[in-house]
Amino acid sequence: PAGQASVTLAVTPFLDALAEPDETVIVSLTAGIYLIGANNAATVTIAANTPPTVTVVATVPNANEVGPVQGEFTFTRTGPTTLPLAVNFAVTGTADQFVDYGGVGASITIPAGQASVTLAVTPFLDALTEPDETVIVTLAAGIYLIGAADTATVTIAANTPQTEPWAAT
Residue 168 above 60 pLDDT? Predict the structure, then answer.
């Protein structure tokens, strides 16, 4: 700008989920209505990005309708904990959300300053005779790497309703 001898050009890197080497941005002066001095290029190095690695385990793998006894998944990240980290996952299994247990969603956030967070699976008590059912969580892509422990299972124990002694059989 008029009245200034210099100007600053900022290089702002973007966080991505790629494990990659250091990268460079090189700015070179080109001919114009000025003379180009000896220092006609500059390099900015963007330090290698090592995204966190996320894993999931069933820390309480056995749940039960009676009580109820909750199951629990634990999502853990490695690396810096300075920022919150949203973790995406898919839910499958033989148990039905909102029928056999409370909904667990499709993502969870590990808060800043924490390396892990838990997700409870709360079974619903019903009067059905049914086999053991499963809730399976599988990590999905995000701004992180997926570790070897990428799938975990909580089993909801079979509920066998008691027949009242006076009920007809």
Answer: no
**Class of residue 69 by CB neighbours under 10 A (exposed 0-12, middle 13-18, buried 19+):** middle
List, as own/partner pairs, every contact residues 160-168 make where C-beta atoms lie below 8 angstroms and the sequence separation is at least 24, other chains included. 160/129, 161/127, 161/128, 161/129
Output 51 or 159, whichever has higher pLDDT: 51
pTM above 0.85, yes or no: no
Distance, in Å, from the CA atom of 62 to the CA atom of 76, rounded to the nearest integer, reads 20
Neighbours of 78 (CB within 10 A): 15
- Are 100 and 133 in contact by the 8 Å Cβ rule? The answer is yes
Cβ atoms of 108 and 89 within 8 Å: the answer is: yes
Are 26 and 118 in contact, with CB atoms under 8 Å apart?
no
Instruction: Report the largest interatomic distance among the alpha carbons of the chain, rounded to a whole angstrom.
Output: 103
